[in-house]
Amino acid sequence: MSETPPIAVAMSGGVDSSVVAGLLQRQGKPIVGLTMQLWNQRRLPEIANEGAAGRCCSIDDVYDARYVAQKLGIPYYVVNFEDRFEEHVVKPFVADYIAGKTPIPCTLCNNFIKFDQFLEMADGIGAEKVATGHYAQIRQDAVSGRWQLLRSTDTTKDQTYFLWGLKQDQLARTLFPLGGMVKTEVRVLAQELGLPVAEKPDSQEICFVPNGDYAAFIEAYSKEQGIETDVTRGDIVDREGKKLGEHGGVHNFTVGQRRGLNVSVGEPLYVIQTNPATREVQVGSGEHLLRKRFSVAQINWISIAPPGKSIRAEVRIRNRHQPALATIYPKTDRSEAEIEFDVPQRAVTPGQAAVFYQGEVVVGGGWIEREA
Q1: What does the alpha-carbon distance between residue 269 and residue 257 come to, in Å, rounded to a whole number?
Q2: In sequence order, what E strands does the chain have?
Q3: Which of 280, 291, 285 is nearest to 270 (CA)?
Q4: Which residues pair with 10 in a beta bridge?
Q5: What are the domain boundaries of the chain?
């Protein structure tokens, strides 16, 4: 009788992935811990802050993951994905900001690293499935046989907004053991399992951006790569095109931003849009941020087949946005659509994602483009 294939657990060094490893082990499952080395924290020394709290995938996180694996007595390996991470996450992140968009590196990492390259690594150790600490749920539809992505039980920790790019073959091989739990239960379980990271704070910042300073990272990385950012300097203008001031580069701004404009007209101003072609940053009042209709591209229909006609759904346009009712109008190739909210929403931002929900089910998602 052949041995049961192991489950590859993506161990980040945090409490969530550590609990996944401990929980699966308690259930008698054979597991192997794998930590992904994604970014050299010593790179770009002018902005490096290796000891910064709240960053995922740091050097300290690798140490913590190794320590947890030792406590559990499981095989453990660190795998180097730095080159692929830079190519598919860091470079697009910088390019999108310079192009006037606001990218989501965590989604790119999920699409091209954690549920792509990681699955290939799992194949190499004979693992049929992978498990992560994401707060989301997966089920297989009994009628269609299609794998579906669902919101987690803990709505405050739900991470489906970052997982809309997962394909059917990836969902079929993925386990989210924490999807039916709330964070407080996870912390208690970590204590029961005797995990040394039971009280470790959650990571909040992007792993390669120290202190959340996107502009400083873009400047430092661009300088290292020989990319000229000064060419994006230009004017801050109102909605009529009147010049109100100057700025140091469109990559310093995102739709909805209020701080750092350094212009005053007697009322609060917000970034309404950026235009890299003219190097203009357009500002206006809060009401000018409201949008009802916009375009979405590169749609991944997850839980349903690509629809041939318009559908109704709740649409989330950023991670902390409360999903709002909308009609989705697929275009001919189904990978693009126009979305129309019932009620205009604030700060629809190119480069962010629009994720479609029907109840608890994530039916699909795509990248926000300019207004339809």
Answers
A1: 9
A2: 7-10, 31-37, 76-80, 129-131, 137-140, 147-150, 174-175, 234-237, 243-247, 270-275, 280-284, 290-301, 311-316, 324-330, 337-346, 353-358, 361-368
A3: 285
A4: 34
A5: 7-133+177-211, 232-284, 290-368
Q: Does domain 232-284 have CATH number 2.30.30?
A: yes
Q: How far apart are CA 306 and CA 299, in angstroms?
A: 9
In degrees, rounded to 5, the angle at the alpha carbon of residue 126 between the alpha carbons of residues 120 and 131 is 65
Gap between the Cα atoms of 332 and 216, Å rounded: 41
Q: Is 3.40.50.620 the CATH number for 7-133+177-211?
A: yes
Residues annotated as part of the active site = 109, 207
Give the pairing of strands 7-10 and 129-131. parallel
Those residues with Cβ within 8 angstroms of residue 83's Cβ, 6 or more apart along the chain or in another chain: none
The domain made up of 290-368 is a member of CATH 2.60.40.2470: no
Mean pLDDT rounded to a whole number for the chain: 90
User: Could you tell me the two tokens for 27?
Assistant: 């259930």
d(CA 251, CA 242): 21
Q: Computed over its alpha carbons, how large is the radius of gyration of the chain?
A: 22
- Number of neighbouring beta carbons within 10 Å of residue 123: 12
Terminal CA-to-CA distance of the chain, rounded, Å? 59
C-beta separation of 274 from 255 below 8 A: yes
What percent of the chain is predicted at pLDDT more than 90?
63
Q: What CA–CA distance (Å, rounded) separates 332 from 274?
A: 29
Note the pLDDT of residue 121.
Answer: 87
Task: Pick the range with the lowest mean pLDDT from 49-58, 120-129, 201-210.
Answer: 49-58
pLDDT score at 49:
62
